[in-house]
């Protein structure tokens, strides 16, 4: 259920009107809480990272995600599921979007070990183009 819910949030957030409604209704917190409660479930982490990445397409929402702990949640998913290429791809994509044109998030990501996690994902999954693309941005 949480995997599907996070996936739905990510898909709905592609529409600008829906994106604002999702944020206004507390959708960031709902996605992050699903990821926190289901840390061991790679599929929830993939869907959650995807939703975070889509929500973070707007700069003001990038800030809200970071304030609610989203950087740490995404990096935690990457740490927990280092062997899972799909989690690494989704996590790298989310980190890339959270960092896009946002120097505060860039510093937060670096401070929380995100640079090493992205490079580690790329090293571990060297033969997987999608992980490489997500890591390179």
Q: Describe it for me?
A:
With 137 residues, this protein is mainly alpha-helical. The chain is built from ten helices and no strands. The protein is globular, with a radius of gyration of 13 Å. The model has no long low-confidence stretch (mean pLDDT 97).
pLDDT averaged over residues:
97
The ordered string of helix (H) and strand (E) elements is HHHHHHHHHH
* Strand coverage percent: under 5%
Helical stretch tally: 10
Q: Tell me how many strands there are.
A: 0
Molecular shape: globular
Radius of gyration: 13 Å
Question: Ends: how far apart?
Answer: 30 Å
Q: Give a short account of the largest sheet.
A: none
Proportion of residues in helical segments: over 70%
Low-confidence blocks of residues: none
Would you tell me the structural class of the helices and strands? mainly alpha
Keywords:
single chain, mainly alpha, 10 helices
Q: What topology does this entry show?
A:
Elements: H1 2-12, H2 16-24, H3 27-37, H4 42-55, H5 59-67, H6 70-80, H7 85-99, H8 103-111, H9 114-124, H10 129-136
Condensed summary:
The chain has 137 residues and is an all-alpha fold. The protein has helices spanning 2-12, 16-24, 27-37, 42-55, 59-67, 70-80, 85-99, 103-111, 114-124, 129-136.
